[in-house]
């Protein structure tokens, strides 16, 4: 395979801002739009690499930097030959920098304290201090060996108002430049694979700060760009608004990544219509494990598509007694392994029994639905189906 990273625009649609990119990495090609199942702790919950490939997943988010420092540690990952070999996943992989944990764990000052240089985390088991900085984040991502790595940032909280958002982007921008400097000393993983560095746009819900951050990140001349912050994915109405603010500033050749988008199938459709290429979310597998199974199909809507469930809210709750004797699959016409082999009644039984196999079968279905939505969008953009 080509030991390089490259984004190539294949086609755009005139209907909205949806497009298809061919993204080349040392571990293979990705055709966007592409949903990334999340393997935060070096595994996608309840799914094997073969399960992921059967769902047509092209790329995963594997091995969050903070969690890999906590367990198993960089020595174990290095001894395994990197995250790809350790996980048995040999296709493209993205990892994140630990910036989300700076946001989430710093709410408890006993666990995490932020300073100008980074964040001090208390190890949840040993109590030892982990000092995560732009330098240590990038160095750890070199050991993880992902194809796409993220500049260290501070995910912007929606709670602190404009002052907190401004402080977060100032740290994020300062840390970005250090991240870039460390990366450019050796733009390869420890295993010799070219890594792409993405910067992250912050700024919360403030248009001028988002535009300021976009301008700064673009001037850094990186391989790709991400849009982050607590609001992204959590509030899809605001997410769409933020994307409308920053999209006119984004160059066409760069891969665009919305962090944490994908709680529901419709979220992917909305993000792609605003010009987004890749996205990740723990929602599909988490929903599956808790009994919420995606139900619906993509239908034409004003030249584009929408995810429609004529029976309900886009998901069924398999724990309900009405499914105890239901011999239908989760979703009629679904080609996932679960729907091809098992009934709602059987999944209801497994869920009630708290059987571990339930979670695997449920996750396969939900991730398959997300990937089918991506496939439907690619076909619309390519003109392979009538709108």
What does this protein look like?
With 387 residues, this protein is of the alpha/beta class. It has one domain (6-280): Queuine tRNA-ribosyltransferase-like (TIM Barrel), CATH 3.20.20. The protein is built from 14 helices and 19 strands. Strands 4-15-14-13-12-11 form a six-stranded parallel sheet. The radius of gyration is 20 Å and the shape is globular. The model has no long low-confidence stretch (mean pLDDT 95).
Mean pLDDT reading:
95
CATH topology category name: TIM Barrel
Total of DSSP H or I helical runs spanning 4+ residues: 14
> What is the highest CATH level, the class?
Alpha Beta
The separation of the N and C termini measures: 36 Å
Keywords for this structure?
about 375 residues, alpha/beta, three-stranded antiparallel sheet, 14 helices
In short:
It is built from 14 helices and 19 strands.
How are the SSEs ordered, and which strands pair?
Blueprint: E1 6-12, E2 19-25, E3 28-31, E4 34-36, E5 38-39, H1 49-54, E6 60-62, H2 65-70, H3 74-80, H4 83-87, E7 93-94, H5 99-105, E8 112-114, E9 119-122, E10 129-132, H6 134-144, E11 148-150, H7 161-185, E12 196-201, H8 207-219, E13 224-227, H9 236-246, E14 255-258, H10 265-273, E15 278-280, H11 283-289, E16 292-294, E17 297-301, E18 304-308, E19 315-317, H12 337-341, H13 344-353, H14 356-382
Helix pairs in contact: 6-7, 7-8, 10-14, 11-14
